[in-house]
Amino acid sequence: MHDTIPNPASILPLRVERLCFADAQARLLEDVSFAIPRGGLTIVLGANGAGKSLLMRLCQGLLAPTSGAVAWNAQPEGFSRHAMVFQKPVMLRRSARGNVLHALAASGVARAGRAGRADAALQRFGLADLSERPARLLSGGEQQRLAIARAVAAGPEILFLDEPTSHLDPGATLQVEQMLGGLKRDGVTLVMTTHDMGQARRLADRVLFMHKGRLIEDAAAHTFFEGPAAAEARAFLAGDLLW
Amino acid sequence: MLWQCARAGGRRAHTAHGSGEQVDSLALALGLIVSLDPGFLAVVGLSLRVTATAVLIAALIGLPLGALLALKRFPGRSMVIVVVNAMMGLPPVVVGLLVFLALSRAGPLGALGLLFTPTAMIAAQTVLALPIVIAITRQIVEDLWGEYREHLLSLGLKGVRAVPTLLWDGRFSLTTGLLAAFGRASAEVGAVLIVGGNIAGSTRTMTTTIALETSKGDLPLALGLGLVLIGLTLLINAAAYGASRVGARHAV
What we know:
The structure holds two protein chains of two kinds. Chain A is built from eight helices and nine strands. Chain A has helices at 52-60, 96-106, 111-124, 140-152, 170-185, 197-203, 221-226, 231-237; strands spanning 14-22, 27-36, 41-45, 67-72, 82-85, 158-162, 189-194, 206-211, 214-220. A six-stranded mixed sheet of chain A has the order 5-6-7-3-8-9, sandwiched between helices. Chain A has a three-stranded antiparallel sheet with strand order 2-1-4, with helices on one face. In chain A, helix 2 (96-106) crosses helix 3 (111-124) and helix 4 packs parallel to helix 5. Chain B has one domain (2-251): MetI-like (MetI-like fold, Orthogonal Bundle), CATH 1.10.3720.10. Chain B contains eleven helices and no strands. In chain B, helix 6 (118-154) packs antiparallel against helix 8. Chain B is globular, with a radius of gyration of 21 Å. The termini of chain B are far apart. The relative contact order of chain B is 0.16. Classes of the chains: A alpha/beta, B mainly alpha. Chains A and B meet through helix 2 of A and helix 6 and helix 11 of B.
């Protein structure tokens, strides 16, 4: 279960406080607040354009908020303790192993420990046989598994995933979901966006439902799926089109 | 020395203007290449040393500068890009003139006494190669950054910290760019002629020797060096093609 007692050594819980983001045309995220304690898998659910991906990027620090804050329990040094996996994985022009080694180097892992950690990550996620293959020649599913292996190789406490299976077929999606299950069992905190209801039901411990840049509902998964409080969430679950 | 024999034969060929004599010149030129004539090799060696050094210096300066130009946003950046791109087409004689003025006794670097030395030729060729290296690097790194941006930012790599990754992943395309710079530098004649002075045994390169010997009627030597230059051009293009093939196979 979630450990809500702050640990001075941990960057969690993460507190998102009154987060707003606007570009020149519109306010894309409006007054979003929630906390992510250690452990569990939180699904950020909502239709396209709800602000899910933007929220992930703000949490990971890829964008600066217009106002509000992303506050960690302990300020992470560098990017080794929180990582992100994107909808379409970016593969460096290197081997699969080279991609993991690069991420480990960027995360500040000492040179002597990189090879062992890279091999362990590739082995764990069934990529050992592909380790010397150019990463960009791997299939979509293999690339996304590699992206996850690369993201977790340095041992982050929390992993943000932005619709990691939206381009994958059911078989590859199942493999990724199994990987995420394993990471959750290992205590990695997972925050993942999806607009796939079935996936949300399969994976979520908790649901953050977003609509038009606002956090509409924040509930335990079983509570949310049995009877969401917000009308927009009820409509979304009923399969109605939201805009 | 075969070079001297070639000169005598070449002058005869030049004055006779007969096709048979031109064949003789070509045969003598091939003889110069095959016999590895020391004087001939000295000219080829100096040319390669000067150009290789110039391209190396241009790479050391141009790769990081081009990468930073791709990644940094600052007022006047567009103007800098336009100027760098325009400098790729700088007339070599103008570069030679500018370097000459800088290195001449009255110039700002005159005290170094570098005029009419291989170092002056390296400086001129570096000025010619540098815009090519910067412009090509800027374009390659900018394209890669567009693709890698979010991933590298998620690893905390931005600005200068992202440069090594981008240069390494663009290495095959960058190699092609460096070879293009080598091709431009090795083929130019105006700049090295002005700042080197075409002094026998000291600053005479393949291109300046071809220009001089042709005007003197020594066709075999000019033809021999011309053949080496053509071979070098082929070699550079083969290397560029090879780099792109290797890139396609290993780095996609």
